[in-house]
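Hi everyone, sorry if this is the wrong subforum. Our group has a chain we'd like a structural model of before ordering constructs, and none of us has done structure prediction before. Sequence below.
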Amino acid sequence: MKIALGQINPTVGDFSGNSAKIIDFSHRARTLGAELILFPELSVCGYPPRDLVERPSFVARNRETVDRIATETQGIAVICGFVTAAQAETGKSVLNSAALTRDGKIAFVQSKMLLPTYDVFDESRNFAPAAQQQLFTLGSDRLALTICEDAWNDKHFFNKRLYKFDPVEALIRAGGDLLLNTSASPFWMGKRGLRCELLTMIARHHNVPVALVNQVGGNDSLVFDGSSLVIAPDGRIIAQAKSFEEDLICFDSNTLTGDIHPQIPGEEASTYAALVLGTRDYVRKCGFQKVILGLSGGIDSALTAAIAADALGPENVIGVAMPSPYSSPGSIDDAKALARNLGISMELIPINEVFQAYRNTLKPTFAGLAEDVTEENLQSRTRGSLLMALSNKFGALVLSTGNKSEVAVGYCTLYGDMVGGLGVISDLSKTMVYRVSEYVNSRKLVIPPSTMQKAPSAELRPDQKDSDSLPPYDVLDPILEAYVENSQTAEEIAHQHGFDPDLVRRVVRMVDRAEYKRQQAAPGLKISAKAFGYGRRFPIAAKPQA
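Answer:
Right subforum, don't worry. Here is the predicted structure as tokens:
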């Protein structure tokens, strides 16, 4: 049997747009001779729908859309994800389900059993788990249909399993000879390899072909890489879709042959592609066309601008240089050179007069007090106010340019450089910012070499350097990765890396104290295993543990 995988980019709540993609891909697959096409998890309503599933009108529209898909895709069987009413006594009104449509009607429905509640997932909040699962027959094949997490509990792959039951094992034991998985599996660095290893283990252990179709595109902070694939029982990849773009591939379940499309190789290249896709979809799906960002002449704003230009087109990116009394001439020159290289527009708005007006206004109240970080932050907040004024006037979304290292330790200013609607690189450590920037320049030199080479500085006081307040980034970033992503203690980090224990404890305290800032930050694009945001839930008012 020839089976197609429809790797599409749905938008949450866009029933007409999502169904149009499903119908179009189904028609194309039928033309290619496919008898069945599989679409991603909750592809009809978009993933993740979150509390939208609590609205009866949303659930009803979702069911009506599946009925229309069934009517308009006759001649090919279609599996698409949607929401169904729950009959279980769980207090939840809906199930995360997948429908098989055939001959103009819904012929079979399978619902998700394993509901993840870790990292960015909170499906138990919205969905009831399925009580059971069944095989379905198409042609001479008995097919086992699973939904995303249902395939992520293999006892041969995971040392510690989150669930007692393994839907894959049960369905194959019942006689399934082909495993299908409809997924919305978010990207993070290393995720594609992990996903492939898991599916390979399942295929080899159960001696069946495994086909996974994954969502592609950005929805809020999550970026979905697609990378749909089919694994033969011997572990060979027999079909593979592109990463970070919509795609349609087919495979033959009898000959075990299929389409293999190229993937984006390398960590820096795939990370950049994820950020471009995530930025494009966040801006477009939120209804914006243009973006604005501050250009400081530094590496962070340079990389953010490069991502924005690739995501939206340079004609839709406005850079704003806002020099203060402490900005170096080289920084302004670097900002201008970057704008020219990218082909984006640039506004030059000095903040000296506004900054001085703030100081004059506050002078009576601050009489007798020495200047300190207050005056430094006034410069940053002046820039933030100007960016938001431009956003209001031109209807463009502000992109914040802070990186994960700064956000982690609170080396950022509330209502200053933290303003914006999206933190494009807020999940990239400073060292990763340099690596991705080097990748950008390897394609075409757009970030000025002087920007890459200069010592990082906020330029809020004379001769300021980041190293005045922070450890070197090649020391800071390993500490942050160990503490934030791996949950290691300060003592474990110091012992493992050979760092000064007092230094590690100081960094850990900075991370803990900055929680109130992070929870007021713009949403950021997740590209690491543990990003700040709703996948890392810590209290603000808590006693530091370091």
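For your construct planning: The chain has a mean pLDDT of 94. The CA atoms of residues 136 and 468 lie 64 Å apart.
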